[in-house]
Specification:
This protein has 260 residues and is mostly helical. The chain has a 3-stranded mixed beta sheet, sandwiched between helices. It is built from 13 helices and 3 strands, in the order H-H-H-H-H-H-H-E-E-E-H-H-H-H-H-H. The longest helix is centred in the last third of the chain and has 19 residues.
Length: 260
């Protein structure tokens, strides 16, 4: 009976994980909504109950996401290590992490607003960059490590980094400036920023702090345009805005390719 219950939980998680209707014959690819895959729900089910069927789903349906989480985000070892599953489960038995798992599921029970915002932003970006591939987006839960991970046109959102500026763990471990960015409203801007950075990495020969800062300012300006709001506000961002208005031949692609 317990095994059947576990499988039913997984089926419910998968059904809720991607809230859209597939209409490949009638909807143009560019018009489709971004579908956030709720990998975090299956992950949380395993980490809070030890349900083996949830672990199987992680490894069979989301093998790339699971590898990146275990190897690159948590750095627990290789995904095929003999004891990696028990190590992964034990790691999250810490009371702080268990409380965080519960809070993530509470705050992000519904992500329709983020789905819609991501869809609109990437639709605008696709118009500016026609050759760009819209990423596959999923949610995960780390241990207060990286906020966004990008790999080969997949984009992972670590929801544990967006629990609000007043989340108790944040207050004890992050500055007020950092906590101001660890909020729900920053998920979409961060997704755009990190994905653009993966598409337009700064050349190796231009890796000075000044060059990196200027490159990020350009990305921030682009994100503001795609969000249709001033998410990032600074004199340097304003300078990029003035440059784009005064240079008619300069588009987003050229802006981000320019190392100056």
């Amino acid at each position: 009976m317990r095994k059947v219950y576990g499988m039913l939980c997984i089926l419910m998680v998968l059904c809720l994980g991607c809230q859209w209707q597939l209409k490949p014959s009638s909807v143009d690819t560019d018009e489709q909504r971004v579908c956030i895959q709720r990998y975090d729900r299956i992950e949380s089910l395993y980490l809070t109950t030890g349900d083996y069927s949830a672990l199987q789903q992680m490894n069979t349906i989301y093998p790339t996401q699971t590898r990146m989480l275990i190897e690159d985000v948590l750095r627990l070892g290789r995904v095929n290590d003999r004891d990696i599953n028990s190590k992964f489960l034990c790691y999250f038995q810490d009371s702080t992490l268990q409380a965080m798992l519960e809070e993530v599921q509470r705050q992000y029970a519904d992500m329709d607003d983020i789905n819609k915002e991501l869809s609109s932003a990437f639709k605008r970006l696709k118009k500016e960059l026609p050759d760009m591939e819209i990423p596959e987006v999923y949610t995960q839960i780390g241990s207060f490590d990286q906020s966004i991970v990008v790999d080969n046109h997949t984009l992972g959102i670590s929801l544990d980094k967006y629990l609000g500026a007043d989340y108790p763990f944040y207050i004890d471990h992050y500055t007020a400036e950092q906590r101001a960015m660890m909020v729900r409203s920053m998920i979409v801007p961060d997704c755009l920023s990190f994905y653009l950075l993966s598409l337009y990495p700064l050349p190796a020969k231009h890796q000075s702090k000044q060059a990196r800062d200027q490159h990020m300012v350009k990305i921030q300006w682009v994100v503001n345009q795609m969000m249709r709001q001033q998410v990032f506000i600074s004199d340097k961002v304003n300078a990029v805005s003035h440059l784009m208005k005064s240079t008619s031949s300069l588009n987003i692609d050229r802006l981000l390719r320019c190392a100056e």
